[in-house]
Amino acid sequence: MSNLAELLTMIGLADASMSKSHILNVEKEDKNTPNNYLLEGELILSLAKKKKKRSVFKKHNLTVKLCNFNYPKLMVGEETAYKQIESTIKRTINKKMKEITSMECLSNVGIPFLLDFTRNLSDVTIEVCERGFEWMLAKNVGRTDYIIKLTVLNHSFYIPVNPKRRFQNCSYHYKSNSSMSINVLHMDYAFFPLFCLSWLNELLTEAYEDDSILETLMDTVLSVCYPLWRYEWIYDTAPDWFTKFLEIGKLVIDRTNNVISPANGNANHELMDAESPKIFNNMLLLIAYAYAKIPFQASSLVDNKSIYENFIFYEDLAKYSLMTLRFYITNIQDQKEEDKYRKKLQGEVAKAYTTKRNIPNNILHLMQNSELNEYFGFIEFDEDVDIELVNMVSLEFQKLNERYFHHLICKEVALRFRKLGRHHASGLYYPSINTIVIDYRYPHSFVHEYLHMCDDIMGDLSLQNKFDKVSKHYQSLLCKKVQEEERNGTVMFSKGSKYNLNYYLRKSEIFARCGEIFLFRIKKVVSSLLRHEDTLNFAYPDDVKLEELIKEYYSTFFENLENLTHHRKEQNETNLCNTADRTSC
Predict the structure, then answer these.
(1) 136 and 154 in contact (C-beta within 8 Å)?
(2) Rounded to two decimals, what is the model's pTM?
(3) pLDDT digit string (tens) for 288-302?
């Protein structure tokens, strides 16, 4: 490969598979010629198309597992979403069991189906109950010949398949002999919590290869276990994983009052009953699971002290399971909605992401010499663009970039200024091809599209757990506002328009809009590249809690952006030095 091709490869403008004809064409031209500059735009477009598809999980099997249940579109409200998830899983179990019409079917279809629900739990066995007094008693309870025996460690439970008689989840015995008793459970009562624990163990397995999953599991534990609780350990001998939990959760041990409390002293939670060791122990199981990677056992569901309810899915375990399920299900559903939008965007007429033909020389000269080339890999101006406007945009962007985006340089991204009349938009971002398009008549869309770019090139930040609190609250506010307006007779969305409620509820869209709110409402930024607050519509809710969540998230986001740009700068310098060394050789 030639020195020029190698250089292009090193700085990310080409790859090793680039055709010889492209290399020869580049070498024939001086690097500052118009043709070479246009080629850079083509390279960005070509390389961006090779990007991996937006994905919730690194491995596809978890996505398939969730999609197999055919969850409905989850409602914005968390509690409602939890009920939807639980009812969907239980309905799936009961529907499958209705297919059981013979003992052979139970053995060949029913048992394998249920085993899949518990495949990540090592202390569970599931089998067809053999005839005996347990089978007879369970048959009399449920009025069915098909009985499943579920064993958790040394605890046995009997589950009637398709019962013809109502019964409770409790112990049953013959009146004539109370010593002959068995624990009888409903199918969904037993296998819903078993599925949840198996799901969590599968997530934990994937977390060894995917740090984002582990981060989600750890953050979610803090949400569940944050109430102050009395402790019964001798914390001088607490394991490292619990110490790590205290540090990340910013919690301290108050030995005077015998409680664990926030380090900042703001005790806004009630103390948990000191006589609830089971609840306390389940919290410890959650913390050990996320911070020490200790998988769950089905035995945590068994309560030996209870006579009637000896198979219990404690509230903390249930809530934690449902929180993780809701997070990943909504992300998958959001991804489907995002894919629809992207497909529609790329299929529109007059594709705004392709370089125009026959660009006038004066405009091409302006493109090549624009100061925006310092930040982007390729710049394109429409031939009708106002030169004074170009200079204004360049100057304002440099100020914004230096002040808030910490001199972020994205040479893998193309920036194009076009008229977007037929697209019914003032700006567009094409994630699959790393291209920002701004209608130069409406420069206020710049920051919005730039935030879309940040979300995309930094690994779909809007799908990460740290952004979840912001997106959930935003969605609830927006849905409430739309419902209020529609009750008053206001038509919010016209039929056939691409801007419907689902468009505004997409997490990538929320990320960009909330980023704008952070800049103009919290940081008080005034710029022609940023929407003015007095022109905002319903998609920018004015809410105190939302602003608090936005401030917390985006303050950290911009701080991390400074570290990222510093790392990118060092990486680029290293690449250029390595390239120079190779060239000299």
Answers:
(1) no
(2) 0.82
(3) 999 999 999 999 898
